[in-house]
Amino acid sequence: MSENQSTPDDAQRPEGEPRFSFTDKRKVTPEGGASRPTGDTPAPDSPAADGPAEQGQQAAQDQPMDPIDAAAAELFEQEARKDAPGTEQQGTDQQASDGQDASAARIAELEAAVATLTEQLKREQAEYVNSRRRIEGAAEVAKEAAVARVLSSLIGVLDDLELGRQHGDIAEGTPFHAIAQKLEEVLASHGMTRYGKVGEEFDPTRHEALMHEDDEDAESPTIAVVMQPGYVMKDRVLRPARVGTRGPA
């Protein structure tokens, strides 16, 4: 009798009563003595009908995942998303955008620094120019003052030369005349000139009046006599001319 065969009593078994069956567990078939596969043959509709792979998958799904395996799976998914073309392009675009923002911020910072340094350089240049002008001006004033002191010390010599001319001691053609003329030329090269002539209008800033003669017909005082000529160096009065004036009282 093969496995799961019915007995003669099946026909007399009341309806609804469970049918008696047995399983043939012999390792060889009774007909030919061939070897039979071991294990029960699962029913078509039973859960055992699924193969070992399906049973393993079902068991794996029912069993909770190990935390280490879960972390590894998450890392694997992240790497997979990074390797995806869309994700890589998105990351590249984001990096490019961040780089552009950083570059723009750096450019703005450098431009502000350049503007600050340029303004500071302009101030330093202006201060340098002004300082140089002050130094040059002070040096020029000091130089003129030194020259004026030297020229003023020679005024007495010039007065003696003028008196010698008036008395005929320095006549033209004599050696003294040539020396006096050369000295006056040297002094003139430094800006020293003589002034004060009869008939000039009296200027209290350049003339010193030692005497005055009333003249009701005169509109303004004029120089009537020159006692000592005056000397100037450019605009600096070295000695005022000592004169006598004529004019209204």
Would you give an account of this structure?
The chain has helices at residues 52-62, 67-83, 85-153, 155-166, 175-189, and strands spanning 192-195, 207-214, 222-228, 230-233, 236-239, 241-247. It contains 5 helices and 6 strands, in the order αααααββββββ. The termini are far apart. Strands 1-4-5 form a 3-stranded antiparallel sheet. The model is unreliable at 1-8 and 41-50 (pLDDT under 50). The radius of gyration is 66 Å and the shape is rod-shaped. By secondary structure, the chain is α+β, with helices and mostly antiparallel strands.
Rg (CA only): 66 Å
**Number of continuous helical runs:** 5
Number of strands: 6
Largest sheet: 3 strands, antiparallel
CATH architecture annotation name of one domain: Roll
Largest sheet strand order:
1-4-5
* Fraction of residues in β-strands: 5-15%
Helix percentage range: 40-55%
Mean pLDDT: 78
Q: Helix and strand string, N-terminal first? A: HHHHHEEEEEE
Instruction: Give the CATH superfamily of one domain.
Output: Head domain of nucleotide exchange factor GrpE
Our measurement of the CA-to-CA distance between the termini, rounded to an integer number of angstroms, reads: 177 Å
In short:
The protein is of the alpha+beta class. 50% of the residues lie in helices and 14% in strands.
Question: Which key terms come to mind for this protein?
Answer:
249 residues; alpha+beta; Nucleotide Exchange Factor Grpe, Chain A, domain 2; three-stranded antiparallel β-sheet; three-stranded mixed β-sheet; 50% helix; disordered N terminus
